[in-house]
Amino acid sequence: MTELFESAEINGMVLRNRFVHSATNEGAANHDDGTVTEVLLRLRGDVARGEVGLLIPGNAYVSEQGKSRPGQLGVHRDETITGLSMMTEVAHHHGACIALQLAHAGGNQYVAPASGYALGPSDMQLTDVPCRAMTKDDMAQTVTDFAAAAVRAREAGVDAVQLHGAHSYLLSQFLSPYFNRRTDGYGGSLENRARFPVEVVHAIREAVGPDFPILMKVNCDDYLEGGFVLDDFVPLCLMLEQAGVDAIEVSGGTHFSDPRYFCSRPVGTVPREQEIYFKEAAEMYRREVSVPLILVGGVRSFQVAETVVRSGLADFVSLSRPLIREPGLIKRWHEGDTRPSTCTSCNLCFGPVRAGEGLYCVPLMQERQRGRSGDL
Ligand SMILES: Cc1cc2nc3c(=O)[nH]c(=O)nc-3n(C[C@H](O)[C@H](O)[C@H](O)COP(=O)(O)O)c2cc1C
Q1: What are 41-59's pLDDT values in tens digits?
Q2: pTM of this prediction?
Q3: Is the shortest distance between the CB of 24 and ligand 1 below 6 Å?
Q4: What domains, with CATH codes, occur in the chain?
């Protein structure tokens, strides 16, 4: 029986336990150039010190064209490497491994790039920035950008990269027939929709070699009429496994889905039986896919996390909002105080992030301002 505080390995990366800090945009990078700031180092140092096994900072844009929001982390230029190295050192100093999430916003873009338009699988308008269908040249350039970004990440010393293939970012848009209306070899069947993400995986593998872990976060369901559906999930994961992905994090929902099915569901405090969002998808995955599974979405109590790993539902439990409220949560659990996270999934943390003001738990800040803070 696997235990939460048992170490684990993903393609040579040795993690001290089964807890992952799911990628969480901090909105705290330099607004001009996406480089790491003191605030970012402090935020990520706090989570690493809190004994998480694998720390994944907020998604980093691989090209200026693919930047999503102000204050987002960048890995689009060599100038970002110094700051990323500092963040890596902080993580390692506290015993955590670190993976950089590589992202391109596609049509999910909230800052207009110099071109004036976003690039995605098809012509569409999801935000104020109009989105133009990528040409074959655009796609080739983007594949190159992902591979170059992975090499920069490796140069910065990070232990792994994670491709952002979820939540209606570019790779997820290609996978989803809701966004992808292409009639060439990149649209239509699942195999065609997966072609571009698989090309990105191959290019990264080619660039970083066989021994560097490549993870990928994908949706099991878009929860969108005409979008990516659960039946596509396992076949996709088998294609990614075949392409050389070393571990898969299962998520779901998009920025354009019913808010109840957003990746970060605003569910309030729920009974333990309702904590895991993607249990069915995880069960399906386990029957057919071999590479390790990272399960994110809704976990708030130690007992649920323990059952996930002990039962073999997933190899790793991934948390985002609980670690915003309490970066030391895993350490507290490890030390025997197994009371659940006090995160109520209110999603107010998105406010400061989207404004590019830096990540914090808004209710906790309000409690502190009123002088009623607990010991968290
Ligand atoms: C403020 C905030 C920023 C997020 N940024 C990212 C991101 O950069 N990349 C990503 O894949 N998911 C991102 N997410 C989603 C989380 O990683 C996670 O999938 C989701 O919140 C569900 O996990 P939870 O219930 O433990 O919060 C973000 C979530 C929050 C709350």
Answers
A1: 999 999 999 999 999 999 9
A2: 0.97
A3: yes
A4: 8-369 (3.20.20.70)
